[in-house]
Amino acid sequence: MKRLSFSVYLIVLLSVFLGAASSWPESGFPAPLALVARCLVLFASLALFFLVLPKLIGQAMQIFVAMLLGIFAGWALAMMGQQALVAEYLGIFGALFIDLLKMVIVPLVFVSLVCGVAGIGDVRKLGPLGAKTLLYFCCTTAIAVLIGLVCVNLIQPGSGREDIKPAQAVVQDAGSGEAVGEEQKPSLGVRIQEDVLPQFIYNPVIADQPILAVIFFAILLGAALAANAERTEVALHFFKSMDHAMITIVKWIMMLAPIGVFALMAKAVATMGIDYLLALGKYCMTVVLGLFLHFCVLSFLVLPLLGRVSPLRFLRGMSPALQLAFSTSSSSATLPVTIDCASRRVGAGRSIASFVLPLGATINMDGTALYQAVASLFIAQVYGLGLTFQQQLLVFLTAVIVSVGAAGIPGASVGLMAVVLKTAGIPIEGIGIVIGVDRMLDMCRTFVNVTGDSVGTVVVARSEGAIEEPAA
Length: 472
Ligand code: ASP
Fold this sequence. Notes:
This protein is mainly alpha-helical. It has a domain at 101-180 and 210-258 and 273-463: Sodium:dicarboxylate symporter (Proton glutamate symport protein), CATH 1.10.3860. It has helices at 2-23, 32-56, 59-79, 83-120, 126-155, 188-200, 211-227, 233-254, 257-272, 274-279, 281-307, 311-328, 331-346, 350-363, 366-382, 389-405, 412-424, 431-434, 438-463. It starts with a helix and ends in a 9-residue tail after the last helix. Aspartic acid (ASP) binds next to helix 17 and helix 19.
């Protein structure tokens, strides 16, 4: 009872504070009706996700409900002209959730890789295991790009669409969908998201290190610990304890997942703009179709054939991670949950999952590679450039390479697309055409990125005889 009343006070206080901040004009007083309505929207959202839903359904279901409600709320509030409330104030909960997840990425990758490699035990096994993992990554990424190329060549979403060629490309902010240009004083909500939260939600131990360097060192350290098992017992024990501690932190952060996902979805829908989506409908459908086909290849062919695990068991087990990937657009932020789902819920050996998944989240991005191929060819079609076989081959190769270098964060593909376009001789300004719908497609490609990593974990675990009946 005591805890409940404390949460209620906190929620009321937060709703009133943010509601008032969002409705206060530069000068004068807010309109009372707007103020009350905004406070109520915030209160209803917080109360639903902290007080009501946790009593009724489990966490995975809460995240799913949050996704649907987020889409609806984003659409409804945008219709009422409340984009700012959604993006700047409700958006704080999405930013908080993502910042917290980002905070644990590097230490988690480090600790889980050290434990994963050390857990393999015999250092001589590491080479074959690494080779198998890389082979899987290369093959599936190549298949993804091929599927993308076939779809975009057959559907030709950009042919005859010179109308959307940017005369002077309107560069939009992928996150907000608003035209960049005029200097505007950021609101309190934006400042909280961009300045305040990152001030204290930031990992102080090993943050901002190049992730590939972290991976390389972690693999070496894990191997060295395994090679001297008798003398390094204490260190191994330390890393295992740290691994548990990291997982505990992730579990705490996940308590914010429903409200975070709700806010992220609402913000994405409210700021994207339906008209823009319709203009690029055929292109979006081509990307989504390609991603869907690749998802089917992974889940219904590769998984049962090579992993010998039923798609149903896999999808049921991985659903929290896949939903999170979709709503956060970040395979790195999803990583902690992906490891937990693959090992505990699907049954892939923990040390294999701790080895394959951190690597996969960094270098294996099937969805991203497919997306790069479709987007580049679409832009070429809009510009009326028929790409030769050699040019398409170049797109194929650069899309694969770029996907290895892409970070597992929202919008990572956008900057890298310039590389693919430049290599194939397609005008770089064309990025302006597709950037506005990037956020939505990012959700879909991240979903496929995480599926690819997880199927890979099952396949590698099966080849090592490390698949068990799931614990839950
Ligand atoms: N958001 C994607 C991911 O995290 C990367 C990308 O932008 O394609 O997997």
